[in-house]
């Protein structure tokens, strides 16, 4: 019996299998942070994939928190209404739960679309703005220095995360993931390489994780009781020699988040420093998930160059993680869960309109949505 196709519980939310579509920015919103037809067709595609859960792309809680001018947001009610309309359509074709990743890009904001160059756009440009961070330290040499957030501004960020969370619930999302990874604002406060503050949000470990914990608590306070909230972290800056954020720190914040009520930890890595030394390869981030899993009782999602069904199955079989996050693999093969079910001899639910497209030998592997 395949572990990948067994149910898993994220708090009160039960998934039919352990395949999670991880957030992937599409850079396809308009300049007001509003969704487009691209998102509608993309989410419908995810919904028909057979995965257990889809978490949609990083969604900014402030306009200046977008990675680029083409990112979606949840800082106003029009954005909420448009997201709600898409979700209502998508849920007519599939019972798959959808989550949203709430985010603030911090100093890595105000960029162009990746396929147009990735460079930071100057704040006096029509499509750019002043970036913010824990300290006045730029990500790339040549970037404009970010503004170091004041205490009042930090409190506003926390409040805006909470307000965006309320909108996410109203829009119909089944889960919220807090983005504290990949060198974005919460990660910038966590890492000693980007946080040189001397107030209560800087210095020692407890102070550097304070913002992430306060954001979690603020969201927890405004969503319905037992509403599931997970957190994505970068388990390492890949800058150990320079004293960056590391797995020991990640274990520490994971334990703290579990105490506050987090329903899972999504273990990615990197993105904080331009000189990071990532050792890429199959399963390269799985050891981080494995280490965190040893210290918490909530599920841990592994992600990163997991592309083959047996590879994902082995991670679960070896107790290295509790669920598998897929991003690029799903973009490349939107029916990855179908093919995984066939490879592992398991069943996956698909829309009845697709039942007749399956090869005769595999028909017993597929059932229609219940």
TrEMBL record:
Pfam families: Oxidored_FMN (PF00724). This is NADH:flavin oxidoreductase/NADH oxidase. It comes from Acinetobacter defluvii. GO terms for molecular function: FMN binding; NADP binding; NADPH dehydrogenase activity. Keywords: Flavoprotein, FMN, NADP, Oxidoreductase. Residues 4-341 form the NADH:flavin oxidoreductase/NADH oxidase N-terminal domain. The keyword Disulfide bond does not apply. Its cofactor is FMN. InterPro entries: Aldolase_TIM (IPR013785), OxRdtase_FMN_N (IPR001155), YqjM-like (IPR044152).
């Amino acid at each position: 019996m395949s572990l990948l196709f067994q149910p898993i519980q994220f708090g009160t939310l039960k998934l039919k299998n352990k395949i999670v579509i991880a957030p992937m920015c599409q850079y396809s919103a308009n300049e007001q942070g509003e969704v487009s037809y691209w998102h509608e067709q993309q989410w419908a595609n995810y919904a028909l994939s057979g995965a257990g859960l889809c978490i949609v792309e990083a969604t900014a809680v402030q306009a200046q928190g977008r990675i680029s001018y083409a990112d979606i947001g949840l800082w106003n009610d029009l954005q909420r209404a448009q997201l709600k309309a898409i979700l209502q359509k998508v849920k007519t074709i599939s019972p798959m739960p959808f989550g949203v990743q709430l985010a603030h890009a911090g100093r890595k904001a105000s960029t162009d679309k990746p396929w147009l160059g990735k460079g930071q756009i100057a704040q006096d440009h029509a499509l750019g703005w002043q970036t913010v961070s824990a300290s006045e330290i730029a990500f790339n040499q040549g970037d404009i220095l970010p503004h170091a957030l004041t205490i009042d501004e930090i409190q506003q960020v926390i409040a805006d995360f909470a307000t965006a969370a309320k909108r996410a619930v109203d829009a119909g999302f089944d889960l919220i993931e807090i983005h504290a990874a990949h060198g974005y604002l919460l990660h910038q406060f966590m890492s000693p390489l980007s946080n040189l503050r001397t107030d209560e949000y800087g210095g020692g470990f407890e102070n550097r994780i304070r913002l992430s914990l306060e954001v979690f608590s603020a969201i927890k306070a405004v969503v319905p009781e037992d509403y599931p909230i997970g957190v994505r972290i970068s388990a390492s800056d890949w800058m150990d020699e320079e004293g960056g954020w590391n797995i020991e720190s990640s274990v520490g914040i994971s334990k703290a988040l579990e105490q506050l009520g987090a329903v899972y930890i999504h273990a990615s890595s990197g993105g904080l420093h331009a000189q990071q030394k990532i050792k890429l390869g199959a399963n390269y981030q799985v050891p981080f998930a494995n280490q965190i899993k040893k210290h918490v009782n909530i599920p841990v999602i592994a992600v990163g160059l997991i592309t083959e069904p047996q590879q994902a199955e082995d991670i679960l079989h070896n107790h290295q993680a509790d669920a598998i996050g897929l991003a690029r693999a799903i973009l490349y093969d939107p029916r990855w869960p179908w093919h995984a079910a066939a490879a592992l001899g398991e069943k996956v639910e698909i829309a009845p309109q697709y039942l007749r497209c399956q090869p005769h030998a595999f028909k017993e592997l597929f059932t229609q949505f219940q």
